[in-house]
Amino acid sequence: MQERLEELRKRALDELEHIRDRAEYELARARHLGRKSELNEMLRSLKDRAEEERKKLGPMLQQARQELEEQYDRFAEKVGSVTAQVLEPLDVTVPGRRSSRGHVHLLSQVQEEMNSIYQSMGFRVLEGPEVETSWNNFDALNIPADHPARDMMDTFWVKDRVDLCLRTHTSPMQVRFMQAHQPPFRVVVPGRVYRNEATDATHEFQFHQIEGLMVSRQGESAVSLANLKGILEYFFRAFFTDDAVAVRFVASYFPFVEPGVGVYIKGTKGRLAGKWIEVAGAGMVHQEVFKAVGYVPGEFQGFAFGMALERMAMLRHNVDDIRLFQGGDIRFLSQF
């Protein structure tokens, strides 16, 4: 084995002197030092030899391996980084390769712009957990276990935990925030939500919402639907860069607000031109929600609203299929 080892060592060092490029280097290193190399086979065969042979041959094999590794590493350092540099003469006349640069995803752009508009009106931006307790996600928002509204939200529940789920809306942050703060305040909560829905051009099992909440004490300056309409009107005009956007409230039902309204808008540009489109749900915070978070019912008044980021992006950028946002198609994403 000694003669075989010496022959292998000389062959590996001789081959190193004649390497011309990166590919040859990688092949030579794998051939002589890789997992399936002859040297490794010799090391593995030691277990089948007598103890005296193991004591004699083991150090010799280890020394040979260490020497080859040092020589190959030294060669790599001498020429720079063989993993990033071709070991051939550099042709400085060849034009450089332009590297492509990524950019912020469209949904992130939309979220940042929406956050900025609300912040300009004094709203604080919050984030919340995507795994929620059923109490925060449903019960505290006036949706008890037997409430038919739960059937409207096909929920992903955590396995073996009937009290935990992937949040179906960003509204649980209303509960979390009000439990820790006293009015007056105004906050918005953007984030990802989950519903077990069939995927098509207008539905995804995961999407993004932005939740708004503004609460004050009862009195002459109490928050009202008029305040809600004014804030939403300002937001939509800024977001769609259309000062002619009009907002209309239509009576609707949501368990955590009373009265509840569907928010419709109409403008003069793009998809908003000439027709009313429903874009959000809103209303005055239900007194049962105030009661659940520890507020004294009747002492406070506020409004809440929620809208989908994907919906806003689709209207603004004329996108027809919601699945494009998560599809990873560079041809689509690079447009924005």
Overview of the molecule:
The chain has two domains: 2-78, no CATH class; 106-333, 2-Layer Sandwich (BirA Bifunctional Protein, domain 2), CATH 3.30.930.10. The protein is of the alpha+beta class. Strand 6 and strand 7 form a beta hairpin. The strands form two sheets. Strands 1-4-5-9-8-7-6 form a seven-stranded mixed beta sheet. A two-stranded antiparallel sheet has the order 2-3. Helix 1 runs parallel beside helix 4 and helix 5 (106-120) packs across helix 10 (309-317). Mean pLDDT is 89; it is low at 82-87. Helix content is 37%, strand content 19%. It has helices at residues 2-17, 22-33, 38-44, 51-78, 106-120, 134-137, 172-180, 225-239, 287-292, 309-317, 330-333, and strands spanning 124-125, 131-133, 164-166, 185-194, 206-217, 246-252, 257-266, 277-285, 300-308. It has eleven helices and nine strands.
